[in-house]
Give the backbone structure.
Amino acid sequence: MGVLDLYLKYQRAVRRDRNVAISFRKQLENPKRVTVLIPGDDRMPAVVVPALRLLRAHHPDIRIVLVAGPDNIDAIRKEKMADKSIVFHRKRGTTQIGEIKRVAKEVSKLDPQLLLLFDPEHEPSLLALAEATGTPLRVGFGNGDRYPYLNFQMAPPEKDLYLADAFLKLVGSLTGEFVDFLDDRVRLRIPEGDVTRATRLLHFWQPKSDKLLFAVEPPAGGRDSDLQKYAGIARLLVKAYDARIMVLTEPREKAAGEALEQKLGALEPYRAPVEGMHESIAFLSRVDLFVGPNAPLFHHAVAMGTPAVGLFTRADAAWWYPPDDVRARALDLGHKMTEEIFLKAVQEVGSPEDVS
């Protein structure tokens, strides 16, 4: 069966056979070449890196080939987790088939022994790509219903399991070690040079200030109704804690940052100058609290242990909600949100006395 047939067959119906999941543990004792597929979701790097660190820790000589979208490859490249990167573009219609063939051919030339699919949603194009590479052992989440795309399937993540921990559990099932995503061996790390730059710029802004520094990220697109809500939250924080406000965004959302800055004019906020995502993350590491949507910066804050309050919507999947034992909370930004609920969450992730 060709790649086109597999791809179209998956879209027509999911094959269900709960007896096809086969354990290959003996083949995993010392893998040398592994391919990692991750979805195009730009929140993925923050939750994938700890799992890659755990894999590397157990197999120092392993060669990791990363297959992902261009933005995610750039983000993970900074972590130096992959020996080679292959860009997988998302395309429309049957043109996606050609992209699957191209990438599968490039991967198969590298003769990988193991393929890891870090995707809880089972994106059809990634499943088809996994099978098309011809990798002998293809590992991912499933209940035996993803064969032949995956031939070694772990139980899907529990509804209340944060995705970073789910990926660590997936790798832990292969390595025999299970760790928390904030474990020093696997947690997100920031280059010292990036942190130094962010620290200096903040010092130039307010060199002698001893006030707390809170970062607020507006949601993508910068709709006026959303900006009004986030501006109100920033004013509430200033009123409650006499804090400084920094407007922090991803580089591609500069316009939304500028719009929020204008709405907060009277507070004289600092809009962090960022050209790359690594710069945004460096600024994030210097704040006492981060407030933002269910977006990459929130999950980087969670990964670094930075106190954070996420403003989610009902459409957000449960696995994006951080666990209760970390310094982060996710709140539903709906009509039931009140000042009291928000300030309680801020207190839970770190009061002014113990925020660091």
Notes: The chain has two domains: 3-175, 192-349. The mean pLDDT is 87. Residues 98 and 320 are 32 Å apart (CA to CA). The longest strand covers residues 63-68.
